[in-house]
Design a protein that fits this description.
By secondary structure, the chain is α+β, with helices and mostly antiparallel strands. The chain has four helices and four strands; from the N terminus they run ααββααββ. The chain has one domain (2-72). The longest helix has 7 residues, at 18-24. The strands form two sheets. A two-stranded antiparallel sheet has the order 1-2. It comes from bioreactor metagenome. InterPro entries: MetN_ABC_transporter-like (IPR050086), P-loop_NTPase (IPR027417). Belongs to the ABC transporter superfamily. Keywords: Transport.
Length: 75
Amino acid sequence: MLELAREGSTMVIVTHEMQFARAVADRIIFVDKGEIVEENIPSEFFTKPKTERARQFLNMFEFDAVKGIENKKSK
C-alpha cells in the first residue's frame, strides 16, 4: 500500500494505524459509530482535531514531534 501511495494511486483505507495514516494520507476522515465526525488534512487532524471525539481517540496514542505517532499509551 505504501508503494501505491507513493505512486499517487487513489485509495480508501480503513485503519487504526495512525503512523501509517499520517504518513500516506492526503485527507483523514474520522468515523465514529458509522458517522463521519471529522475530515481534515493529516497535519491539522493530528495536531488540532476539531471534535472532542477525535481528541479522545488521539489521546490513546503517544506523540513525538519529530517521529510522529508512536504506539498506544499503556494504561
